[in-house]
C-alpha cells in the first residue's frame, strides 16, 4: 500500500481526483483549507495550507510515494493579489518541493505530479503553438508556474525528486460558484445549456480555445503518476494534448446532445478583454505528450458528454 | 546625484564595476561579505550578505536608482553545495527583488541589472545558439538564474521594477585565486602566458568557447543601467554578444602580443570533463542584443589586450 497525497483536494480537479483515488486501496492524504464532504473510508483529510510546515509534518508522517500538487491561487485572482499569489504559487510550492526532496529515502524518490498551466506561454498569436515553444508568461500566475517547472526539473535531475509537470488548459465544466478564472465562460456555457437556461456568452461563435473535460484531466494526472520517467525530457514537463475548438463547435456538440432548442438559449455579446485573452487560441501540437501517453477528449461530442457527466456528480 | 548599489562588489566583475563607478559622482553603496581595499571617497562599503534584511535596510536608507546584482555562488560550487546555492542564487535573490519592488516610489522604479549566465542554456550541441533559444539548464546555478530572470520580467511587467537581465559568458582574466569556476582555465592561460609561465591547458587547441574581457563586461553592465527599456522585450533579458574563439585563436593573439616564445609555454592535456563542458561551444547569434547596444570585444587581439590590461590593475 503506497501513500498518496493530494493538495487542493477539495478543488474542482482535486476533488475529482480524490474520488477516483479513494477506491484504489492506497493510503490517501487529502490537503485543503476546507472540505465540502466527509472523507471516504481510508482517506484522511488535513485542513490547512500546504505551505504550513506543521501540516506537512502531519501529512508526511509516512513518506509519500506520490504527491499530486494541485493547490494554487487561480490566475486572475493571483494577478490582482500579487503578494498572496507569490506566496502560494511560488514560495510555498518551492518549499513543498524542497520538503519532498529532503524526504528522499535511498533510491526511493517521491513522484510529484505538478499542475502547471498553459498560462506559461503568454500571448498567443495566430501561429500554431508547439509543445516545445519557449514560454513567455504574461501574468504572474504563469511566471510562477514556469519557475516551479524549472525548480522541479532541477530537483529531478539531481535525483532528489521524480517530478512530472503537466501544463493544463482550462478544465470544464467547473461549478458556477468557482471564481478567479477568466475562462469561467467555458464551463458556464456548458452547464447553462445542459440545464436549459439562457446564457450570454462573452466570446463570439468564432472564438477558439483549448478544451479538456474533468475526467480526461484526471486520466492524465493518473497517467503522470504511473508513467515511466526513465526517458523523460530534462524539463520533466508535458503540454497536455487538448481539443482546439471554436465556441461554435462546442455549441453544436451541446445542441446534438441537448436538442436544437439549446441554440436559442445562447446570445453572443463578446467582451473585448475576454475575447482577446481566451478567444484566439491557435492550434496546439503535442507529439511528445501524445507519444508519452497523454490524451485529449477525442471529439467535441465526447468532451461535452464527459464534462457534464462529471459535473452531474460533483455539483 | 543618484544612488547606485552593487552586490558582490568585491568580486572579479563587481570590483571592476565599482572602480568604474567610483568617479561617476553618484552615491555608491558596495555590498559584499568582505572587501580587499578601503572604499574610495564617496563610496560606502557594507559587509555582509545581500540576503540579510538588516543589511538591505542599511543599504536602502535612501531608495536605490540602480542596483547591480552580481553576487552569486559560482556554478560548480553551487552544484556541489545545493542548499547554499538554492539559498543565495534563488531565495535571497528573489527576496532582494521583492524588496526593491516594494520600494517603488510613484513612477520611479529601480533599474535592476541582473547578472544572469549562459548556464541557463544547458547542453550545447554543434548547432549555433540563437539568443531566443529555449533554455534548458543542466546545473542548479543555471536553473536558479533562469528562474530569477522570469521573476524579474514579471515584476517589470507589473511596473514594480525596471529590470535588465544579462546572460554573461565566462569573463577573463580572473585572478588565479578564484575558485568555483569550471572555466578557470580560460583566465589562467592568459595570465600564465602574459607572465611568461608554462601552462598545462586542460582543453585542446581546437576547443571553442565564448569569450569576453572584464572591461567589455563592465561596459555592458553600464549600458544595461543606462539604456532605455521602453522597447525592451517582455523577458527583459539579453544574451550578451561574445567572441566565439578556439583556444588556438586565443593562443595566436597571445603570441602576437607576448612573442612567439609564448607558444612553447603551452602544453595541451585535455581533461575529458572540462573539454566536454567548456570546449565545444557553438556559434552564438545575438542580433537583438547588438541592436540594443551590447557589444563583444571585437577581436581576439582586443580581447587579450583588454583582459590583461584590467588584470594588471586589479591583481
Automatic annotation (TrEMBL), chains A, B:
<dbReference type="InterPro" id="IPR001509">
    <property type="entry name" value="Epimerase_deHydtase"/>
</dbReference>
<protein>
    <submittedName>
        <fullName>NAD-dependent epimerase/dehydratase family protein</fullName>
    </submittedName>
</protein>
<dbReference type="InterPro" id="IPR036291">
    <property type="entry name" value="NAD(P)-bd_dom_sf"/>
</dbReference>
<dbReference type="Pfam" id="PF01370">
    <property type="entry name" value="Epimerase"/>
</dbReference>
<feature type="domain" description="NAD-dependent epimerase/dehydratase">
    <location>
        <begin position="4"/>
        <end position="200"/>
    </location>
</feature>
<keyword id="KW-0521">NADP</keyword>
<keyword id="KW-0119">Carbohydrate metabolism</keyword>
Amino acid at each position: 500500500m503506497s501513500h498518496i497525497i493530494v493538495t487542493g483536494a477539495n478543488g474542482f480537479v482535486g476533488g475529482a481526483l480524490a474520488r477516483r483515488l479513494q477506491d484504489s486501496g492506497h493510503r490517501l492524504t487529502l490537503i485543503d483549507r476546507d472540505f465540502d464532504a466527509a472523507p471516504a473510508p481510508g482517506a484522511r483529510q488535513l485542513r490547512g495550507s500546504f505551505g504550513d510546515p506543521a501540516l506537512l509534518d502531519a501529512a508526511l508522517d509516512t513518506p509519500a510515494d506520490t504527491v499530486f500538487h494541485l493547490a494554487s491561487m487561480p490566475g486572475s485572482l493571483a494577478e490582482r493579489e500579487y503578494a498572496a499569489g507569490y506566496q502560494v504559487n511560488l514560495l510555498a510550492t518551492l518549499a513543498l518541493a524542497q520538503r519532498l526532496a529532503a524526504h528522499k529515502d535511498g533510491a526511493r524518490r517521491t513522484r510529484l505530479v505538478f499542475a502547471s498551466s498553459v498560462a506559461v506561454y503568454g500571448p498567443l498569436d495566430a501561429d500554431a503553438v508547439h509543445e516545445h515553444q519557449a514560454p513567455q508568461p504574461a501574468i504572474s500566475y504563469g511566471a510562477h508556474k514556469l519557475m516551479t517547472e524549472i525548480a522541479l526539473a532541477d530537483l529531478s535531475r539531481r535525483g532528489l525528486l521524480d517530478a512530472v509537470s503537466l501544463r493544463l488548459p482550462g478544465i470544464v465544466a467547473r461549478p458556477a460558484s468557482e471564481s478567479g478564472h477568466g475562462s469561467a465562460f467555458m464551463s458556464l456555457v456548458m452547464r447553462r445549456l445542459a440545464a436549459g437556461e439562457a446564457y450570454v456568452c462573452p466570446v463570439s461563435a468564432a472564438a477558439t480555445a483549448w478544451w479538456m473535460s474533468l475526467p480526461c484531466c484526471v486520466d492524465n494526472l493518473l497517467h503522470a503518476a504511473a508513467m515511466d520517467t526513465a526517458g523523460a525530457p530534462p524539463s520533466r514537463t508535458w503540454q497536455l494534448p487538448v481539443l482546439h475548438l471554436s465556441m461554435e463547435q462546442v455549441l453544436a456538440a451541446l445542441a446534438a446532445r441537448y436538442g436544437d432548442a439549446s441554440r436559442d438559449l445562447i446570445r453572443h455579446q463578446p467582451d473585448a478583454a475576454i475575447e482577446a485573452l481566451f478567444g484566439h487560441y491557435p492550434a496546439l501540437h503535442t507529439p511528445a505528450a501524445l507519444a508519452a501517453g497523454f490524451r485529449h477528449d477525442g471529439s467535441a461530442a465526447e468532451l461535452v458528454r464527459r464534462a457534464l457527466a462529471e459535473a452531474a456528480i460533483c455539483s
